[in-house]
Amino acid sequence: MDQESWLSCEKTAVLQGGFLLANQLCQPAPLSALRKEDWERVGRPIVQAVTEICGQRCGGNQDQLNWRKRILCIVWSKILEMETGEDIDVQWKENPLFSVQSSLPDINHVVMFELVKSVGFYSIYVELLQCFQEAEQWRELERLAKHVSSDCKEEDVKFLLEVWWELMKGRRESLDNLDQIFSAQCIRFGQITSDCSSQASKRFKPDPEAAVPNMCIFSLLFETLNSIKECITSPGLCYFGLSNCLDMLYTSFMLDHAVELPVEVKLQNIARSVSQRRKNSVLEGAELAQAIFEAQRDLAATLTPAQSKPCGMTFAQAMETLLGIICSWEAKALLTMSNQPSEPSVLAIRLKDSLQRVLEALERMKSENLDENGQALINLKKALTDLLASSSFSMSESPSTEIASVATAILDCNLQGFQDLPKLYASKLSQAISETEWLNCLERNKSAFQQKDLVMTLVSTLIAKSQGDTDVNQSKKLKNIIMDIFSQLLLPDKNAALSEILKLSKKGLHGFLPSSVTAGYDGELNLAFNSIIQGGAQAKSSLSSAVSAVARVAFQNPEAALGRCCHMAVVNLGAHTLLAQILQQLPGLRSSQEQNLLCRCLQTSVWNKFSSAQEEEQFLHFLSALMEPTIVEKTEEKVEKLCFLLPEEAVHAFVLPFFSSLTTGSSSLELCLRVLQCALTHIPSGDATTSWIMNCSPFPLLYSLAQLLNNCSRCWEQSLEGDTVLSIESKELLISILTMLGKAVGKEVELAPGTWSRAVSWLYGKVEALDWTVRFYLKEVWGQHFKYEVPSSLMAVCDLPEQEWSGLLLPHYGQGTGLLAWVECCCVSDHVQATMLDSLCLNLLNPEEVNMFSKGLMVAVIQTLPWCTIEEWERIVKVLCELLHSDKLHVPYSLEYVDFLPLLDLRSFASDLRLSVFLLRLFQLLCGSSCADWLPPQGWAHVSRLYASAMRRVIDSAKSKVPIPSTATSFKTPETSNEVLSQEVLFVLAQLFCHVLHVQVMIPGQAEPLFLCALEILSSYEAVLTAYPKISPAVQRANTRHFLTTIADNVQCADSRAVLHQKIAQL
């Protein structure tokens, strides 16, 4: 009902009628002059009208409760209006209650006090009293004190004590519309009063010696009760009054901060209060919630420091006053609590609580430090101790069912001030009420349990119930409720819960539940991951949902969830990236056990079960993504990034077990090497420590890798049973790993040489039995401790410093093998290659020596070529180019593929042509009868790939000499100089085509890389012709096509030959 409607409804008419009738009964005196003793004769019509509107004192619906406050608000506003004498023209504009107030006769405070006392509107009176400013509030309370003290009866005492107790409870948190209206009225009337006072002060000069009233509510209430103590003859009122005094003394002088009771104690107190209220009325729903709220207010009033400290009475004076009141009532035997009935009254229980509280506080006070308060404290302490001793009754605890009922109501109504209640409800109180009621409350109030600790408490309760005789359906329902609550946790709390459940069992929640409760999990697991895979999670919200779904199934069974995640990441195309992102959001699944749970799941679900190279690739990418440091962890000292899977854990799980015995199949071993390479790429760079690698048996691992590299020299031999030989393709991977691992270990050795000296010596001694080139890759490990050791024959062709290099007498490196060792050194690294080129001893002034060097170098390259990786071969080609440019390598160029001498300037292409001829001569020797059965088919395929890569380098070098316009600019006429140079390019490309096909014909097998290289040359030839059409007349083109076709006729494969013919015909 809005304000306009209730101000002019029939209930206001009833109220008006009651006051008018009372005004008639009061005649000849007006109602505004009513005296306290006349209320019995005059006030009945008012009380009847209010009762008709609001019902009886207790209970009533919300509308009746609202009307009680409206009536008191109207009456009090009427009194304030009369006191201020505000102009009527101002009132009707600014007073929202003017219409109903003007219909009432003039009244005074006696009418309001007696009305409140008659109908019991104590709490409403205090609510409106607290709308006044502090000074005005004290004045209003002083009026009440005078009214109560005059012709005091027990009803007056009860009025005072009820107002006192409500004042101690403090103002309610929320103000309704009437509170706001009345507060505005109080402020307005206060301003009018102050204006009048200021005008009067100009006319009247006050006496400076006159006493100024001390506006202390504490002293006012104490003194008033002290003055009327003799009027009290009821033990109940004595209990009430003494409790008020003790509680106000305690909160004003003995309490400096609010006391937070344990939730169990708080519930016990509230349940006891609610039980007492149930005796008078049925409490359900809103009534029960209101009763709990009021009981909580009662409790808080005694445990919260007073808002303002007393200023009109000292602690000693208060104790003396209290002691006088106690003595007076004890003399009349009004405080004897030994004769309580079987169930003590609420007031007796409250008094006993207050006595215990104050006595405990007094015990903590040292009387010698209180000066003048000391004797008063001792006397009060003795009186209170005797009084407590006389209370022989014991306060029985409320039954658990009552406590559970109250707790349920608190949760349902979301009452504030019970932060620890959900934990108690999730554990102990789960046994106090029926399973169904408890579960229903949990389901209704899931939001109240959205904390990690509460989820784990519920988990403990579920485990306990599942292991008992609880119905399976009830356990399933509780499990589902827990999972719903878990799903609503914030991500950090989810991770904390996952980490905690994982510490209990790798099977998580399901590790403690019977199969009957966990039934249906497999379906949920499948649905979760299938939905993620099918739907993807590109958007941030989708990723968040996917993370939540995985967290939910992982909380129930981390091992099963991670196993399914690993399987899906490998077998579903492209799923590894998404699933890695999801796991990176769930660091709570990182296991702190000896072996990482993720690694165990990978080993169980996917390792050694790959059905294709694609699955292996996805597995490696999945591992790599999980080793990325993307998880932010904040500590007090710093913020650092962590990874879901530590590289160290991956090495322990997938690498070290397979190096303990080198009898593993080469395919598995190559995958292990790729895992190791993946882990090594995540070693921190810069000054960051790489100590994790030192926990992975680095020196035995280095030796095992060195053994594998040593065995690569037998990659073209028939491997014996039990022998592990890696493919030539894996040699490059192995070298890369040895280099990275050597650098990482060498860094640690350099930081603490004394710690690792024995291990370094052990490794050095072990690799002495291996090929001398292997030691080059371990130089980073021992740094300056050991020199580069090379065959002594190398020292004959190189001038190497003895401080860094030393010669070895090796059986396979006799006289004349120096160039072979030199070429092998050039393959090792760019650094060693540069050293070899700089230290090469060759007299360019001696033609015979240069010729011998050139022939010897060809033989050395032939001996090295089949065992070179692509990277090593590129280094050799680079060395050949350097030697050609410096004229150290002599390669005569013969025109065996031309019918006439071309009138061209080929000086710019000299190095390219000579390199091509060198390679041609090399393969002529390699493919000769002396080396015919030197390599198996796989070896010939490998050397053909190496030759094709070298020829592509030559082709690119030749093409770079002349610009080839793009399609967009091809219409422009090129410069003449470029046209001239393009003729040389065409000639060179034709020569290269002949060389490539020559080698292809010589090499056993199809040599597909050379066939593709020949096609690439023809494409380049066509591109130059297209860019410079004028450089080649039609006759010359026809001759060129005929010549190239004649060369292509030598290709043995008919299909390849036909493709070449077709390509040549298009020139």
TrEMBL record:
InterPro entries xrefs: GEMIN4
Gene Ontology annotations for the cellular component aspect, listed alphabetically: SMN complex
Source taxon at top rank: Eukaryota
GO BP, one annotated term: rRNA processing
PANTHER family reported in the protein's UniProt record: GEM-ASSOCIATED PROTEIN 4
Protein name: Gem (nuclear organelle) associated protein 4
Annotated organism of origin: Astyanax mexicanus (Blind cave fish)
